[in-house]
Write a structure and sequence with these properties.
Structural class: mainly alpha
Number of helices: 12
Organism: Kingella pumchi
Protein name: DMT family transporter
Number of strands: 0
Pfam families: EamA
Keywords: Cell membrane, Membrane, Transmembrane, Transmembrane helix
Radius of gyration: 19 Å
Distance between the termini: 28 Å
Helix content: over 70%
Main location: membrane
Length: 296
């Protein structure tokens, strides 16, 4: 257990990520979606601000522009994702559609920064395309409003991953994260004030769900993930985080009574296989490097 502490911690992070779908659904039952995001990420940014302030003070104009671009991509990602949550009754299929952002990211990175994807990426596209067809366009599938939002949010998430990976190298991590959350909070709050209607009264249970989302599923999750990634190899971490849609599907079956027919099960399995195919070579390469180091 101690030897695999990082892996166990990342497993808990993937479970927290899956739980976030359901906690968010409970919050927007009593709060407008953009208002929820505005409060959530503004509060999260304020919690991080005292620790990030020294690094924020050292950032130059170029770093602020790059951090702002990442923050804008993060806002689009999280806003569109929550629209999918708001328009979906079940989350299983949506979670697997959203997970395709991992495969959209290499394509965007290639288009924007000329980072050519590895050969295994093209192989992983075959089961991913077949799985997406079964989930949203195949026999027994349906392309509803929620699925459309999840598909678009997957592209926004891929853009966020690419920009974050490109710019995080030159910006302190905590400072960049604080700017991301502040950007999402401010933009979502502005949208809510301009277009949403707040209820005259919000139940105390909704505020409790919101507090859980901020403290545990946002700030604590970030801290645990950052710490856990220092304890385990990136290949192992990538494979563990692939499990998020699996947990989301299982929780949806348990909590929301989602049914899993043959087409949906096959589609989810094919997408999961595509993600594993894409991530496995990284794990193999790390193990090969580790063995070579021991032999030396």
């Amino acid at each position: 257990m101690h030897s695999y502490r990082g892996e166990w911690l990342l497993l808990s992070v993937s479970l927290m990520a899956a739980a976030g779908w359901f906690v968010s659904k409970n919050v927007i039952a009593g709060l407008p979606p953009a208002a929820f995001l505005g409060i959530r990420f503004s509060a999260a940014a304020l919690l991080f601000l005292p620790f990030a302030l020294p690094a924020l003070r050292t950032m130059d104009a170029g770093q602020w522009r790059r951090a702002g671009a990442v923050g804008l991509a993060f806002f689009l990602n999280i806003f569109l994702w929550l629209m999918g949550v708001a328009h979906s009754r079940y989350f299983g299929s949506g979670a697997f559609v959203f997970s395709l952002s991992m495969l959209a990211a290499p394509l965007l990175s290639w288009l924007l920064f000329r980072h050519r994807p590895p050969r295994v990426f093209w192989l992983s596209l075959l089961p991913a395309a077949a799985g997406l067809y079964l989930l949203t366009g195949g026999k027994g599938g349906s392309f509803d409003t929620g699925s459309l939002f999840f598909a678009i949010s997957a592209l926004a998430a891929a853009l966020f991953f690419v920009l974050n990976n490109q710019f995080a190298k030159h910006i302190p991590v905590l400072a960049l994260t604080t700017v991301q959350m502040a950007a999402a909070g401010i933009l979502c709050g502005a949208y809510s004030l301009a277009f949403e209607h707040w209820p005259p009264q919000v139940a105390s249970v909704v505020w409790a769900w919101l507090a859980l989302c901020i403290v545990v599923l946002t700030n604590l999750r970030f801290l645990v993930q950052t710490y856990a990634q220092k304890l385990c190899q990136i290949g192992s971490a990538a494979l563990i985080m692939v499990l998020e849609p699996v947990w989301t599907l299982l929780l949806s079956v348990w909590l929301l009574n989602e049914t899993v027919g043959a087409a949906k099960a096959a589609g989810c399995t094919l997408i999961l296989a595509a993600l594993v195919i894409y991530r496995l070579p990284l794990l193999w390469q790390q193990r090969k490097t580790a063995k070579a180091g021991k032999a030396a």
